[in-house]
Amino acid sequence: MTIRIRANHQLSGVAGGSATRPAAPQPPGPAGQGARRSWHLRANAAVLVYVALAALALVLHGWAPLPMPRWLAVHLLLLGALTNAIVTWSEHFAVALLRARQPSRRAAAGRLAALNLAIAGVLVGVAGDLGAITVASATLLGAVVLAHVGSLLRIARHALTGRFAGTVSFYVAGGMALVAGVSFGTLIAVHAVSPRWDEPLHSAHVHANVFGWVGLTVLGTLFTLWPTVLRTRMVDQVMRAATRCLALTATGLAIAVTGLAADLRWVGVGGLTLYGAGVIVALQPFVATWRRKRPRDMAAWSLAAGMGWLSFGVVADLVMLARGPDLQSYIPGLDALVPLLAAGFVLQILLGALTYLLPVVWGGGPARVRAGIEGLSLWWRARVIALNTGVVLVAVTGVVSVPSVISALGWTLAVAPVVTFLGLVIRVMVNPAAPGDGTRVEASKP
């Protein structure tokens, strides 16, 4: 089995093996391809804007001794950029992998508009301690995510093939985790519960959002995206591994979040242990694919480094939770871990995926897709090294007393590759020779 990228004609050699004719209904001719390209340009523009704003908030955090810019940076990245990216790309992958009919773009555009209205309202409401705005915006956010989950379930129900239905199950589980995480965060933000429950609900909020909404979605996607980026075949039984991974991670996350919210620390430890076992299951086909073909570009190394930071984060979180006498003493360590996961895991996965996927949806044939990927990968070794070095320096400042300049240097190294990526996206987009047609992902047999 192999995953192949197709544009207006076959990109031979991208994933290896032979291909079959697409079975899913496709937009007719160049007009449909142009509409698909236009849609992704608009949808991903929001993602890039949030990434730029998150980088700006980190710069402000370095200059101003205020906690809000750091909180804002994390939420601009996780709630803003990642949520927009997940809602856009999870539907794209569901349609492509399941060979389903494309849902209404108008409905999807309406969901994205409502999503960003809700995100803006949550950020303003929490920052300004405006309870009514926070509750209304969080409610709208939850409704949008549930509508998105409903759309994914309809796609799966009308799919022409169920081979990769497990991927959609990851997205559905992640969406439900976000609804829970937003609910916990809202209760804290509007002071709806006794302060005695702030630490339990805060820890449940972080785990549901980071390991649930983001973690489950990333794990589900990489079972098929990783071999595609490496341009090689999927390893045998990869979807069986995906099924086991989902059972362990979703069950473990549900136990961990429930235990933490109820202030039952050892229940949280047990759930997080199951989640970690699921990540280990996911790493098996990931490593096997690596052995078949090593990463050689920006997209692949960013995805690999992101998975490394996720694995580190799960282990570090588990150790801190097990060693701490209570949640109150555990929370500072968790809060120090979140920025590391945001930059090391979330940001790198996002940059790696967009480096590969944006040229794919720009399209224009194999040569233009390759040129687009290469254009977004300029100086990639220096960028990957800088970002990961920066995250390591920030991690060191969290456990060792060092001069503040080390932390500033770390965040500078982490932000610089982001600014570079945004500049390269603009450069490729304004280039007259930039890709111009739509593409899609297709599953095929060797």
Provide an overview of this structure.
This protein is mainly alpha-helical and 446 residues long. Helices cover 78% and strands 2% of the residues. Residues 1-31 and 434-446 have low confidence and may be disordered. Helix 2 (68-98) packs antiparallel against helix 5. Strands 1-2 form a two-stranded antiparallel ribbon. The relative contact order is 0.13. The longest helix is centred in the last third of the chain and has 36 residues, at 327-362. It has 13 helices and 2 strands; from the N terminus they run βαααααααααααααβ. The chain has helices spanning 29-63, 68-98, 105-127, 131-157, 165-189, 198-230, 238-261, 265-292, 298-323, 327-362, 366-376, 380-399, 404-430, and strands spanning 2-6, 440-444. The radius of gyration is 21 Å and the shape is globular.
Task: Give me some keywords for this one.
disordered N terminus, globular, mainly alpha, 446 residues, two-stranded antiparallel sheet
